[in-house]
Description:
Blueprint: H1 3-9, H2 13-16, E1 20-22, E2 28-32, H3 46-52, E3 54-57, H4 86-99, E4 105-110, H5 112-123, E5 128-134, H6 152-164, H7 166-177, H8 183-194, H9 198-209, E6 224-231, H10 238-246, E7 251-259, H11 263-266, H12 268-279
Parallel strand pairs: 2-3, 2-4, 4-5, 5-6, 6-7
Antiparallel strand pairs: 1-3
Helix pairs in contact: 4-5, 6-7, 6-9, 7-8
Amino acid sequence: MMKKLVEEKGFSLSTAMNARLMGSGTEPMVLCHGYGGDQSVWDKILPYLTQKYFILLFDWNFSGSINHDDQEPNNITFDAVKYSSYEAFADDLIDLLDEMDLKSTVLIGHSMSGMIGCIASIKRPDLFSNLILVGASPRYINIEGYEGGFEKPAIDQILSSIESNFHSWASNFTSLVGDPKDPQSVQKFQNCLQRMRPEIALAVAKIIFLSDERDMLEKVTTPCTIIQTKSDFVVPNSVPDYMNKKIKGKSTTEIVDAHGHFPHMTAPDQFLEVLGRVLGF
């Protein structure tokens, strides 16, 4: 999706997405941040993972860390029409992995990136050996027979709040999804979130909160591990149970003894313990 655009501007996809390779391991791993974040959300677990894996870090094109300034070189324009579903992001992920010549990667996808990783794995199973889905959800709106965590009017209110006063909403949202016992991490995510352009934040929020990827799960054959905290404002514990039943390939759920939507930031030791158990390091 983005590859053609950046090539026309004369630079690479990896440059546009702030991609970095690091680590002394031989097995490749790609870390995919979620809504409002950037690659810095992995800072607490990165020093350990780089001892075990060869790691690809990057920023999604909606991130506040991406250059969206039309007056500067290497800028990227976010096209809300082209990026109206997770599939467009999955195409960018596939193109990035191809450009970096990485295959059979362990993907750690937080929140929306869990679903993006699933879609990418269906399209190109050769690129992934394991999918680690952190706080991921295929649908956020409740419907008969499915608990997504929100009623439709609540989602409408979220989108309305983003549109009317993004920065106020971002501050409130951060306090709901973070762990109050770790105010530094909460503040770090808030700073990342508030760096997003409000119009981009709204466009991506619509993709996420109005999505329904439940049918897609039945096509996922790559082994999956779903990582969930004990309580997550965004994703109720019924969601990983649902995903486990629907994913076609081998799938398990691991619960991190923590609260909030960002265990890799607020409970890094427990998060790494779960990863080590799952991946065998």
